Automatic annotation (TrEMBL), chains A, B:
Residues 18-157 form the Peptidase M16 N-terminal domain. This is Insulinase family protein. InterPro entries: Metalloenz_LuxS/M16, MPP/UQCRC_Complex, Pept_M16_N, Peptidase_M16_C. Residues 170-339 form the Peptidase M16 C-terminal domain. One of its GO terms (molecular function) is metal ion binding.
Length: 412, 412
């Protein structure tokens, strides 16, 4: 099955990516803007989150309420998010409503009002979001893990700080917008029942007049993982939250598929090692997983487990043991399962317009091109045990940062 | 677009439902078995959850590990869940792997091993799941809300109790299985790129020999919501969790669409009243919503808000105010947005095989037939303000049960 993938860079630098999925009736779209938490001024951490919330509160000729109503009238299931590096604005709607929805987002991106009278409510929400985290230990431990492992600004929690949010003025939000919202910082991806020529013309009409500026630089910071580190956060909880992280390869690295396959052996499905060895065999913890995450210049392997305090030490030891013994060998059968799992999720993901939009954006952002499903399938087919073992020997669990949150520290 | 929907009841009483979605490559399947938490013996609460976990640990000729591997080899993205009334076992896979996957589930449902040596680990996991709840205040308050509102056994938390889980023996699991796992208690739904004649033949071959028994009765208990009730649970949290519930109509009731539309006015998208009035206008809370839930014999309206303790009283008051003022009037424009929102989500849901399987099962279970999308769209089109207002006047927020979890009680 041939994929219908299109890319176009507008003369002002804005990128448009699209995939036609002729058998669906919906269309998903996503604007990614390089203006995330890493670009917050150090005394105003949380500013980009305030912007993300305020930017939807009125744009073009519509005030806050009218703008929200207009999107809802089109049945747009919308979402906004603040990331470490990028902000995301997007939604899913019926393909027939795509053009009017993009028209509203053209206003949102180019002509937002940032109403001062709504700033206080937005600040209150942002502060609540930070306070909520105290009641969500599983999220909290991951936030603390990244803070302790990545150098600033990569390790920041995009929620910011209460102090930073409180001092921010509407002028700060407007300055952050003026500095980072311009076409060369924006990738728009669309997937669904689209007509490429019409979409391209629409986007040129709606965004072609946006003034060009130099793209925002990627925040340079030293590579991590040179030294092991352990941080315990004391809290009276019923579960001990355990998280760890160590260096792997970035997405653009030729070893990328090998890194993912190695994580797959540990944690892909219910036959994977962590689930089987730590959860099923010993009933040590309810939840345990490993995952891979990447920035443009680096990648990492993360692992998480939540366990009763009296079993936390054994849970940690067994999890670490599974990570460390990976270079010792992988069964051919395990690899086959990982291949099937990776391919099945790839093909099933293809059926959702929202997932396709994420893939288009992510490929373009990290690799500068869009991989076809056939290319990814072929790379998965070519995986073999010896190449994966070579990779895990080259990138063993070293320089591990461990963070625990709970009633007692562990021996690490 | 005509829908290709099929239903068939096997001579032994098992129900098969299917929908052909010719443009996808995946197939989703779900077995619903009437054997949930409401059927646990009172001194062994949590038994059905133990069964749900143990039943995947070996069946037919495969032991625990082999069974798990066999599913993973087919790329089945599987899930099991224990509900109040029903258990669910299902997954999504490539349509080409559907038959071998159903073959494995035929073993799981009819020939499970329930290995005694794995019971202890399963009990440990179940107890951790209960203990986890203490660190998840938002889930905890909803569990306590249902416990306080619905009469036993409907109000039970399907997680059970530590005492109930600890005393359960493998014989109890086997007895629960023998009592409830028979064809007339089972609905199998499949959606995807299927061939109905082949599927039906496969299912008859795989499940036709399963011995018929009388279906398990629905657990009768008195109707709820006659008296208002307030319960506060003291806990040192950074957020006060607020939940409330009151009676509405069951799914089979002719007012069902009216009840959903009324909840839609309150809480469907970002223009809805609760989000606008409680969250956006005053920044009182980060999360606030209302929803509708139904059992076979009753329905309820629920509302939730999580707020900083010092703003909890105002959050509660404003939320309640929005519920109470609904009968006073609904703007035509609000209804139009609800109609667009309900229809858009309906059409977009249609694109996921997993969502279609849930709809097939739910329609059959609650209504005894399967609604086409055209029928639901027509019912949504016919909604009008005066009918919704009549409905909310007949089913106002009365006999409300309120549960709060946090540092201080509210004035209710």
């Amino acid at each position: 099955m041939q994929q219908l993938i299109y890319t176009h860079i507008l003369p002002n630098g804005m990128t448009l990516l699209a995939e036609r999925l002729p058998h669906v009736r919906s269309a998903a779209f996503s604007f990614m803007v390089r203006a995330g938490g890493a670009y917050d001024p150090v005394d105003k951490l949380g500013l980009s989150g305030l912007l993300t919330d305020l930017i939807t509160r009125g744009a073009g000729e519509l005030d806050s309420r009218q703008f929200s109503d207009a999107l809802d009238n089109l049945g747009v299931d919308r979402s906004e998010s603040t990331g470490g590096i990028n902000l995301h604005f997007g939604g899913v709607t019926l393909a027939t409503n795509l053009t009017p929805a993009l028209k509203l987002y053209a206003d949102l991106l180019q002509r937002p009002h940032f109403p001062e009278e709504e700033l206080e409510a937005v600040q209150a929400l942002a502060i609540q979001d930070i306070q909520n985290l105290e009641d969500e230990p599983q999220s909290k431990v991951m936030v603390e893990l990244r803070k302790n492992y990545y150098p600033d600004p990569l390790g920041r929690d995009q929620r910011g700080t209460e102090a930073g949010i409180e001092v921010a003025k509407i002028e700060d939000v407007r300055q952050h917008y003026a500095k980072h919202f311009h076409p060369s910082n924006v990738i728009l991806a669309v997937a669904g029942d689209i007509n490429w020529d019409m979409l391209r013309k629409d986007v040129e009409t709606l965004f072609g007049g946006w003034k060009e500026q130099t793209p925002t630089a990627y925040p340079i910071s030293p590579l991590t993982g040179l030294e092991a580190k352990y941080v315990h956060l004391q809290k009276d909880l019923d579960q001990t939250q355990i998280a760890l992280i160590y260096p792997s390869v970035p997405l653009v690295h030729p070893d990328n598929y090998l890194a993912r396959a190695a994580v797959g052996v540990l944690s892909l499905d219910m036959s994977s090692r962590l689930f089987m060895e730590v959860r099923e065999k010993y009933g040590l913890c309810y939840s345990v997983y490993a995952s891979y995450e990447a920035f443009q210049d680096r990648g990492s392997i993360l692992a998480y487990a939540g366990s009763r305090p009296e079993k936390a030490q054994e849970t940690f030891d067994r999890t670490l043991h599974e990570l460390k013994r990976l270079p010792e060998g992988i069964e051919e059968e395990e690899l086959q399962r990982v291949k099937v799992g990776l391919k099945a999720s790839l093909i099933m993901r293809q059926e959702s317009t929202g997932a396709r939009v994420s893939s288009l954006t992510s490929d373009w952002y990290y690799l500068g091109r869009i991989r076809t499903l056939a290319e990814i399938q072929q790379a998965i087919d070519e995986l073999n045990v010896s190449a994966i073992l070579d990779h895990v020997k080259r990138f063993p669990p070293k320089g591990i940062t461990v963070v625990t949150l709970g009633p007692q520290p562990l021996k690490v």
